[in-house]
Amino acid sequence: MSKTVHIESAAQFSSLLSSSRIVVVDFYADWCGPCKAIAPMYEQLSAQLSRPNIITFTKVNTDTQSQVAQSYGITAMPTFMIFKNGREVSKIRGARAQELSEAVKKLAAEADSDGTSGGFGEASTSGGPTWRGAELPRGYSDITDQVDIRGLDLLNSDSELGGVRALFDSAAPSSLGSGKGKGKAIGAESKSDWVESDVDEQLMLYIPFQSTLKVHTIQLTSLPPKSEDDDEIPMRPRTIQLYTNRAHNLGFEEADDIPSTQSITLASTDWDEKTGTAKVELRFVKFQNITSLVIFVVDGDGEGEKVRLDRVRIVGETGEKRDMGKLEKVGEDS
Hints:
Elements: E1 5-6, H1 10-19, E2 22-28, H2 33-49, E3 55-61, H3 66-71, E4 79-84, E5 87-93, H4 97-114, E6 141-142, E7 153-155, E8 185-186, E9 191-192, E10 195-196, E11 203-221, E12 237-244, H5 252-257, E13 262-265, E14 271-272, E15 277-281, E16 290-300, E17 308-309, E18 311-321
Parallel strand pairs: 1-3, 2-3
Antiparallel strand pairs: 2-4, 4-5, 6-18, 7-11, 8-9, 10-17, 11-15, 11-16, 11-18, 12-13, 12-16, 14-15
Helix pairs in contact: 2-4
InterPro entries: Galactose-bd-like_sf, PITH_dom, PITH_dom_sf, Thioredoxin, Thioredoxin-like_sf, Thioredoxin_CS, Thioredoxin_domain
Domain PITH: 132-334
Family: Belongs to the thioredoxin family.
């Protein structure tokens, strides 16, 4: 019996990308001669190497699932794509059986050797997967890799600590598991891998994207120190306001004058104590065609004067690529 999964919807495909460590995809058409020629070999690989939640072989009919095919720029059949931890690692155009076999078997061997590395709650050892502090909602993927790192902007952050890019580091927070919130310094300037607000408890984070997204959930990780010896313990965010599709970051006064797309109040029980992560579930209908997000941390949960963030993860679905060449950063540097 064939173990190959025939994709019947974009949601089904997104779910597989988030639930299986390696996903092999055969984009084909019923009328395509080379597709039929290589199909038996593909099925043989599937029968030999398929393993639940580790290696999944799929087939996408480009005529009936044109949305999925267009999302990945498929213009010739057959085209084979291989994903590891939700990210593309190989793309093979044409019925090149040997190249396909070698690529799949190499990744299968890596899956055997690296065990659960790069999975939920763990740091990446291969550079591909992204650490997450919470499980993904069913049917959606971690799309943090769609963040345009060059255009990030963060207002009111302590310049002595980490910069805005630290929030999107693919590795686990260095403070995780220490219980003290004092992780290792990173980078050439030996700065921390988290950010804190500066003169008060507010932060204004601007996140542009490389694609038009459907954003379902935002995962925020905050790991303030637990030691009672610290005089100024930063707080976790409490009130958060979200603004969509802005051309640049907002000023704090400007944010007060503009209605937010959604306002969220986090309780202390919303934070997972093991990972320091809160899942901010959005009103999905309002976050369907998103090119940028502004996350405004209005205040923190506690009596402190500063707010801390360690990681931000974006969860949802990707859409069409944007032309990033015309983007310009406006506003202060973080």
